[in-house]
Structures are given as structure tokens and as C-alpha cells.
Specification:
alpha/beta, 7-stranded mixed β-sheet, 4-stranded mixed β-sheet, 20 strands, about 35% helix, about 20% strand, globular, disordered N terminus, PyrdxlP-dep_Trfase_small, PyrdxlP-dep_Trfase_major
Length: about 500
């Protein structure tokens, strides 16, 4: 008898250990029947018991995951059919090094043998310190202090708290609001929801409970060409910049900061806009004494073709949030980094010098140890000193990986441009987006993509991929073929 497993990126069989007693007769119904029963059991047990993201409690799951290796998932559907698929989502953009990565597995095992958790109040440990050193060394130069958080949403909460406390420390306690972009998404906790798009976002039901923030229109759309140039309408951009300056000037007295997803708005529509918009927001922040907060949770660690997306604009934020890929997708961990100027202002405040947040699992050593190993894989460096000015001038692994992803996605998604149901195709770094003229038939297209060998999670009018960095050229082509084939099958010609 065999059960499926994945090793070395390929499906192989694994013999079940023999037992001294003969197995019951019911075991001899064949492998397909056993797999079907197993899959049905998991999916049935899940349905009505577990909530899934942004879904009713009785929605259930579409597939059961029975294994993962590299860039591939082994899925079982309700009929018992196995599907080996390329994970185009990288587990919601986090699993950049692939599943069962030996270096990350080893880091986890090594830390578990020491201790997996200890409170961070009054105590410290090497993994947290080393991770903070690594982050400071690779982040924009002015960011010198680190707050370790549980998740991306929590890092945004901490960033907003810090901005409010900073303004109070500077003698402006009335500055209680934030300036954000329409189309933005920053998380599902309450303060984070308040700076998400209030109309087209997913949190309008909670509007009465969220603080009322101020929103700028989106900058004009941009295309990042294969030659590295940014293509957009200069007239539209100038009009947007002028309007943004006017809105900020009129409300500066009540604003604490500006929060933005640099260059790429993710959950708000996979929208790409010119880096020059970030430079304009930096100028506005400087002119009016506001803090610029860069939400790099989705864009950080190379996804857009720069280590951090603000670097497309050569801008340094006052505060930056990172998460998702920080641990290579293994455990939930995020960080908020801030400038020395901001930290020192808070430290000098009378009676309010503490940053008022402290999660139970803050600085979890297991997550920190894995994050260090993940940064090693991204940068090709070891000790924190290797990141310094004397480091050899060589491309980091993430640079060559993301450049290869961009080339592969441009090629594999190009045929979608000829499909009549496709409105636009855009690629930025390790992000590939196909936009339709109509809303996606999500369930049908997901199933069709799985049949073609790809796991994707479409939304609105978008079918997109943000695959693991270590995808092969063949796997990138498989993703492109699957997306084009599924769109043709479900949405017709």
C-alpha cells in the first residue's frame, strides 16, 4: 500500500510499515478509494467547524493539503483525486523559499532544542537581537530601532500608535488622524482597518467603530517596463500631486502621519503606481511635520524588484512595517522599524516615553531564528557584519531570483494579452497580474487552474500570482499556461 508524499519536488510513493496482524478487509478497496475517504473526511470535518478567510462559516475548504515541497502543493479534492500544483500564491506571498526548505527546517529544529518561547518583558535573547541587527543593516539607512510584532496587522497598529505618541511628545497632541491612499489595505485589526479604503475596501461594515481618517485619490496607474522604466501619464500625475499637496496643507494641523503601500497596492487591487508618488508624499510629510509610514508587509524583501519598495523612489520613511516573507512563510512574525529621530523624541517625552504595546509572543525566539535563516537565504550573508559597507559587491540571491521571476512571468503571461476577456496584464518583480473585463468566477476558475496544475486565489476582476522565489522556469511557464487556460475555459472567448 502507498500513500502520496512529496520529496525533492516530485511525488513519490512511501510504503506503509507492515504490521503483524492482517489488515481489515475494508483496507483492500484500492488506493483511490482510501484517498477519497480521507479527503472527504477532512473536508467534511472542516465544513461548518472552521472559518476560512473572508468566508461564511459553512463555506468550507475547496481542497485538503496533504503535502508540500519546494514550490508545489499536493491537494486532494472531494472526489479523492490528487492534484500536484505549483503554488502561485506562495501561501499569501510569504513562502518565498519554498516548502520544507532545509535551511529553515534546520533553524527551527536548532532553536527548539534550546527554547521555543520566553516572555520578552524584562528578558532578551540572541535570536531577537540578531534579527533586529540584520533588519537594521538591510533597511533604509535612517531606520535604527525595531519593534517585533505578532503579525503584519499588529505592526501597523504599533506604527500608528507610535506616530500618535510621537506627535504628543513633540507638543502636538491634537494631531490624531492619518492620511492614506484610496485603494489601500493595511490589515484587519481596528486601527489598521481605519486606514484601509473606506469605500471599496472590505471593512465598510465596521465604519462606525473605526477612527475617521483622511484619504487621497490613488496616483495614476503605472507600468514597469522590461527595460526598468516607469510608464505613466505625466499630466495625470502632476494633477494628482498638486491635489495631494492641497489636501495635506488644509488638514496638516490634525494629521499625525501618512501611511502607504509603496508602489504596489496589494489586496486593494494589485494596483501599480509611479514611485514618484512616494517622493511627493515624503515631501508633504517633511513640509508639515508628519511621519511617513511605509507598509512593506507585502512588498518587502524583494518582491517588487527592490529589497524594499520605497527604494524605487530612493525615499527613506520614518517608520516601516515588514512581515509575510520575514520568516519565509514558516511562522507569523512582523516588525516595525523607526528612525532614531522618532525613537529619541518618544524617549525624551515626560511621562509617556514607553511605546504602549507588548504582545505575549513578542520576539518569539523560534520565529526569530527562522527569520534570521530566511534573511541569510535572501541576502547570501551570514553574520550581521557581512551586510556592512565592506561587504563584497555581488548580487544577493533575492536579486537574481526575482529578476528571473520577472522574466519568466513576462513570458508566460504574455499570451493572456491576446484573450478577448483580458483587460490588462502587468508584471512587477515577482508579481504577475491578469485583469479581466468582468469579475472573476472565482470557484470555477480556481478549480480550472488546479486541473491545469496551479493553485491561485483570484479576487474581484483579478487573476494573479506571487510565486515562491525558487520557482523554476518550467514552473513559471506552468503557472502562465494554467492561468491562460483557466481564463479561456471559464470566461470563454
Amino acid at each position: 500500500m502507498r500513500t502520496g508524499s512529496i520529496r525533492g519536488g516530485r511525488l513519490r510513493g512511501r510504503r506503509r510499515a507492515r504490521t503483524s496482524a492482517a489488515p481489515p478487509r475494508s483496507w483492500h478497496h484500492g488506493r483511490a478509494q482510501r484517498v477519497k475517504i480521507l479527503a472527504e473526511n477532512l473536508l467534511d470535518r472542516d465544513a461548518g467547524l472552521l472559518w476560512h478567510p473572508y468566508a461564511p462559516v459553512d463555506a468550507g475548504a475547496l481542497y485538503a493539503v496533504k503535502g508540500a515541497q519546494g514550490a508545489e502543493l499536493l491537494l486532494h479534492d472531494r472526489s479523492g483525486t490528487e492534484h500536484r500544483v505549483v503554488d502561485g500564491m506562495a501561501s499569501w506571498w510569504s513562502m518565498v523559499h519554498g516548502y520544507r526548505n532545509p535551511a529553515l527546517d534546520a533553524a527551527a529544529h536548532a532553536q527548539i532544542e534550546k527554547f521555543s518561547h520566553v516572555m520578552f518583558g524584562g528578558l532578551t535573547h540572541e535570536p531577537a537581537i540578531e534579527l533586529a541587527e540584520r533588519l537594521v543593516a538591510i533597511a533604509p539607512q535612517n531606520l535604527r530601532h525595531v519593534f517585533l510584532a505578532d503579525s503584519g496587522s499588529i505592526s501597523v497598529e504599533v506604527a500608528l500608535k507610535l506616530a500618535l505618541q510621537y506627535q504628543e511628545a513633540c507638543g502636538a497632541p491634537g494631531r490624531q488622524r492619518f492620511l492614506a491612499l484610496r485603494g489601500g489595505y493595511h490589515g484587519d485589526t481596528f486601527a489598521a482597518m481605519s486606514v484601509c479604503d473606506p469605500v471599496d475596501g472590505m471593512h465598510s461594515a465596521f465604519a462606525p467603530l473605526c477612527s475617521e481618517q483622511l484619504f487621497l485619490p490613488r496616483p495614476p496607474a503605472a507600468e514597469h517596463a522590461a527595460d526598468g522604466n516607469w510608464i505613466y501619464d505625466q499630466g495625470e500625475f502632476d494633477a494628482w500631486a498638486s491635489g495631494a499637496r492641497g489636501i495635506a496643507a488644509a488638514h496638516a494641523h490634525e494629521l499625525a502621519g501618512i501611511i502607504v503601500e509603496p508602489v504596489l497596492q496589494g489586496a486593494g487591487g494589485m494596483f501599480i503606481y509611479p514611485p514618484q508618488a512616494i517622493a511627493v508624499l515624503r515631501e508633504i510629510a517633511d513640509e508639515h511635520g508628519l511621519l511617513l509610514i511605509a507598509d512593506e508587509i507585502a512588498t518587502g524583501f524583494g518582491r517588487t524588484g527592490r529589497l524594499f519598495a520605497v527604494q524605487h523612489a530612493q525615499v527613506e520613511p520614518d517608520i516601516m512595517c515588514v512581515g509575510k516573507a520575514l520568516t519565509g512563510g514558516y511562522l507569523s512574525l512582523a516588525a516595525m522599524l523607526c528612525s532614531a529621530r522618532v525613537a529619541q523624541a518618544l524617549a525624551a517625552a515626560h511621562g509617556a516615553s514607553a511605546l504602549l504595546h507588548g504582545p505575549t509572543f513578542m520576539g518569539n525566539p523560534l520565529a526569530c531564528a527562522i527569520a534570521i535563516a530566511s534573511l541569510d537565504l535572501l541576502t547570501g550573508a551570514g553574520p550581521a557584519a557581512d551586510f556592512g559597507p565592506g561587504a563584497p559587491a555581488r548580487p544577493a540571491p533575492w536579486q537574481s531570483q526575482v529578476a528571473r521571476l520577472e522574466r519568466g512571468l513576462r513570458g508566460s503571461l504574455a499570451p493572456a494579452r491576446t484573450l478577448p476577456q483580458v483587460k490588462a496584464v502587468r508584471v512587477l518583480g515577482g508579481v504577475g497580474v491578469i485583469q479581466l473585463h468582468q469579475p472573476v468566477q472565482v470557484a470555477a476558475l480556481t478549480a480550472a487552474a488546479v486541473e491545469c496544475g496551479a493553485w491561485v486565489r483570484p479576487f474581484r476582476d483579478l487573476v494573479y500570482v506571487m510565486p515562491p522565489y525558487m520557482c523554476t522556469d518550467g514552473q513559471l511557464q506552468q503557472l502562465g499556461d494554467a492561468l491562460c487556460g483557466a481564463i479561456e475555459q471559464v470566461h470563454g472567448g
